[in-house]
Amino acid sequence: MTTERCILIGAPTQEGAGRLGCDMGPSAYRTAGIREALADLGFVVEDRGNVAPAPLRDLAHTNAAIRNLAAYDAWIRTLTEAAEQASREGLPIFLGGDHSLSAGTIAGVARNAKSNGRELFVLWLDAHADFHTLVTTTSGNLHGTPLAYVTGRAGFDALSPVEAAVKPGNVCLIGLRSVDPAERAAMSDAGVVAHDMRAVDEHGLAPLLRRFLDRVEAADGILHVSLDVDFLDPEIAPAVGTTVPGGATFREAHLAMEMLHDCGRVCSLDLVELNPFLDERGRTALLMVDLAASLMGRTILDRPTRSF
Q1: Which of 24, 81, 183, 270 has an alpha carbon within 20 to 30 A of 13's alpha carbon?
Q2: What are the angstrom distances between the C-alpha of 94 and each of 31, 100, 206, 213, 268?
Q3: Which DSSP state fits 128?
Q4: What's the CATH number for 5-302?
């Protein structure tokens, strides 16, 4: 990381999820002290508040399961512009909101990377692959589609095409525990790197992540990190509507963040799927802020002790 400026952008999306509450996520991160945590690390922190979706367009799709397609499209358009602008000026941190927001944040960061002649990589820390298209989704919840969208997969004809698609081979998913057959086939076809929790159990998180970070460095690339609350085990992070048992532990998550800081390649960050309505006295929001601080350089010895 070469920037001294962090730009906070709230994205209160909830239309992509299956239950309400994620729109409160940006406020929860602010209440949990994300600005103060970053400022304590010496960063200039600019909070640009929450963005609003663009005007809705009249969109339809033959897949009757899809819900809130016009809202998804509106958020993509707004967040693409906001992300491109912010990534020119500092390191944007997007406070979500459900994971559908990443369709816009990554599209914008990728557009800026392309204009600068940089190779963009994406690290997707999630229990789910989010690699469905508008055609293959059966739930109709569009937070399951953003990674397919930003890698230029077919099946998004109803939306504006992504202008700077991320190469599928530049994507690494870690923490997978719930992947549909259509997504497995699509990921294999596309050539994305995917590690489920069995791989983490067998090999450890560090070797898997280090292998990917070495590729980013070899390409002199930059890295967008998308951190979903359900990457974490629900025992330590209950505030998510898509809990899957067996997620990353407290130490595994911090190790990942510390390694990301050490690599010096992170250019932007999504914090997604926090649903404060499901939290316990803010413990998930506080943990996610702690993880963001670790990514930005706070070491274990500097971490304040928290009690719950």
Answers
A1: 183
A2: 15, 12, 25, 22, 8
A3: B
A4: 3.40.800.10
Q: How far apart are CA 25 and CA 148, in angstroms?
A: 24
pLDDT band (50, 70, 90) for residue 2 = very low
The pair phi, psi for residue 253, each rounded to 5°, is -65, -45
Which pLDDT band, with edges at 50, 70 and 90, does 305 fall under?
low
Radius of gyration for the alpha carbons in the chain, expressed in angstroms and rounded: 17
CA distance 39 to 44: 6
Using an 8 Å Cβ cutoff, are 72 and 160 in contact? no
d(CA 15, CA 23): 9
| 299 band by pLDDT with thresholds 50, 70 and 90 | confident
Task: Kindly tell me if the per-residue pLDDT of 7 is higher than 60.
Answer: yes
Neighbours of 79 (CB within 10 A): 31
Rounded to whole angstroms, what are the CA distances from 273 to 188, 191, 235, 291?
26, 26, 16, 15
**How confident is the model over 198-227, as a mean pLDDT?**
98
CB burial of residue 219 (10 Å; 0-12, 13-18, 19+):
middle
Domain coordinates of the chain in residue numbers?
5-302
Q: Which two tokens stand for residue 256?
A: 């990942």
Reading the block at residue 121, the tokens are: 């990589």
Catalytic residues: 99, 126, 128, 130, 143, 228, 230, 273
